[in-house]
Every structure is written in structure tokens, then in C-alpha cells.
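To assess whether ligand presence alters the predicted conformation, the chain was also submitted together with adenosine monophosphate. Input:
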Amino acid sequence: MRVVKAKDELKQIIVEYKKQGKRIGFVPTMGYLHEGHLSLVSKAKEIADIVVMSIFVNPIQFGPNEDFDKYPRDFARDEKLAESAGVDIIFYPSVAEMYNDSFQTYVDVEGVSKNLCGAKREGHFRGVSTVVLKLFNIVKPDAAVFGIKDAQQVRVIEKMTEDLDVDVEIVRGEIVREKDGLALSSRNKYLSETERQEALCLRQTLLFVKSIVLAGERNTQKIKEKVLDFLKNNNYSPKIDYIELVDFATMKKLEILEGDVLAAVAFYIGKTRLIDNILLKI
Ligand code: AMP
């Protein structure tokens, strides 16, 4: 496995691989790797000859009061995990390598980025789509794998590639969870022992939503009311950032559920903001 920090060097390496007719698979991450990231690598290995993983905590997708500075980082650990998962190249640029002092161009995907996390984290998806397009231009992947854990991000990237004619196949990876249902996330590291227990309420809420939808409930307002009762009755008291039911393709809010519905939650567990979701086919 090679670690490359300079984009020009990586571009050269990719040119060589392409000359040999190799298919490039790409897994963008912010590091502090877990099994969720590694499952995306497995998927990339199935569809490509060479797997490139980027590890880059992207400053422009964090708001001023968010956790950019304290976001967990451990490159030595990531290197070992990536190598054992079969990554061929880690792209590990510095912030200066990605954004020079005169940087001034951003990608803003409109509709699908506006609800959910887009409404709560101003500028977040602009930062995500900008860095992903830059990474695509550096890595030139044939396919890139993104986790449905960040379902809105997947739709933003899919829309960006469609709208801007970016020739990269976007592949969706399933959510990897702990045995008790908590979705793996680098941010789980922030949780104390009691918060770790409380964090189960995200998955529990989504399973509850699924159960009432299966029982025939289609009215979003009623579902939200029932969720609040459910949380109270189970002694969960997260700070709710959002509970939303949206059309998965457009990310538009639905009053009455229909089609492919994404039920998505963002809760603060203590100071840690966690997200999770479930797809419901109505
Ligand atoms: P991050 O490092 O958090 O930016 O995530 C990098 C990629 O890993 C994104 O495509 C995420 O959606 C994906 N990812 C994060 N957590 C999980 C998980 N629990 N299961 C599957 N994919 C995940």
C-alpha cells in the first residue's frame, strides 16, 4: 500500500494505472476508520482493480461552531486498517494541498441539499460536494463508494455527478452497525459510557417508525407525535435536531408517506450530534 500526500504525484500514478487498463475504485473518508469505512473498501474491491482511499478532514464542510479541530484523527491506526482491508493507495493530503490561499470555487447542489442536515448545517453540503468533485478530479475514479449512513450526502453526490456530467459511477454501501444497532461513526468516540447507551435511541426511534408505518400509519405529523411519546415512554431524552420523513430521491418532506421514503434522525447525545436513517418502501 502506498501513502501519497501530493495530488500531482497521485495524478501521475493514476495515469500509469489507466495506461495498464486498470479500473480505479475510490472511497473518500475523513479517517478514524471503522468497519463501516472498511465495508466500502470491500465493495470497491469487488468492482475495481485498484482501490484508492482518501483520508482528509475537510475544513470547508464544518461550520464555525462544529468539531473540525477536535474531529478524531489517528493516521497510524488508519494506515494499518486500510492496508489490512486491501486499500492500494491512501491519498492523505494536507489542507494546504487541497485549498491554496486563493481558493474561491465551490459546488452548490441545490434541491437535495436543502432539507435535513442541509437545513441544520449551513454550507455543509457545499463543502462536501466541492471536496468530492476536487477528489474526483485528482483520483479520476471509475467508481466511488459512499455509505447510505449519510443518505443525503449520497443523493447530493449522485445529483452532482448527474448534473455536471461527471463520469464516475456512484455506488451505495449499506450501513454497518454495532451488535446493538448503533450505526458505526467516527464520532461515537466522543460518547461516554452512559451516552453510548443513550445513543441507542436513534436506531430505536427508526425501528419504531418502521413498525408504525408497517402497521399502516402514513401521516408524517402523527408519526412525529408518536415518536416523541415513544422517546418519553422509554426514558430517552436526546436533544432532537430533526426527525424527518422525506422522499429519498428528492429529499423533499412528505406530509403523507408514499414511494421510497427516507426516515432520518439527527440527535444530540450530550454534545455529540449523531445521525441515522432507515429506508422504507411504501
Ligand atoms: P466519513 O469518514 O464519516 O466522512 O465517512 C466516509 C464514508 O464512510 C461515507 O461514505 C460514509 O457514508 C461512510 N460511512 C460512515 N459510517 C458508515 C457506516 N456505519 N456504515 C457504512 N458506511 C459508513
